[in-house]
Amino acid sequence: MKRGLIAAASIVLFCFPAMAQQSCGLRDEIVTKLQSDFQERRKAVAVGTDGSLLEFFVSDAGSWSVIRRTPGSTLACLVAGGQYWSEDATWSERQETNS
């Protein structure tokens, strides 16, 4: 699981410069929206190479979101999201094999 979170954090950090638009606002409001609209709860936290905090939110249905914020700040930005969250490190390998 830890390896998967590190890989996910690396992908998100790699994508930051390419993201043209980010949804930013008060962290608590973003978290409330993720909980009410998508039933996502915080699953993990990682520290980016620039010291920012990455918070991973996941629902039981498999949707996921990542928000980024500076430690101590009340502001955050939604930087990534999607479907099919899995903590199984071999999941993508099995999907490629079944294609």
Topology:
Elements: H1 2-15, E1 23-26, H2 27-38, E2 41-47, E3 53-58, E4 64-69, E5 75-82, H3 91-98
Antiparallel strand pairs: 1-5, 2-3, 3-4, 4-5
Give a verbal description of the structure.
The chain is of the alpha+beta class. The chain has one domain (2-98). It has 3 helices and 5 strands. It has helices at residues 2-15, 27-38, 91-98, and strands at 23-26, 41-47, 53-58, 64-69, 75-82. It has a 5-stranded antiparallel sheet with strand order 1-5-4-3-2, with helices on both faces. Residues 5-20 have low confidence and may be disordered.
Per the principal axes of the C-alpha atoms, what is the gross shape? globular
Number of strands: 5
Helix content: 25-40%
- Structural class comes to alpha+beta
Give the uncertain stretches in residue-range form.
Answer: 5-20
Mean of residue pLDDT values: 79
Individual helix count = 3
Strand order of the largest sheet: 1-5-4-3-2
Tally of separate domains: 1
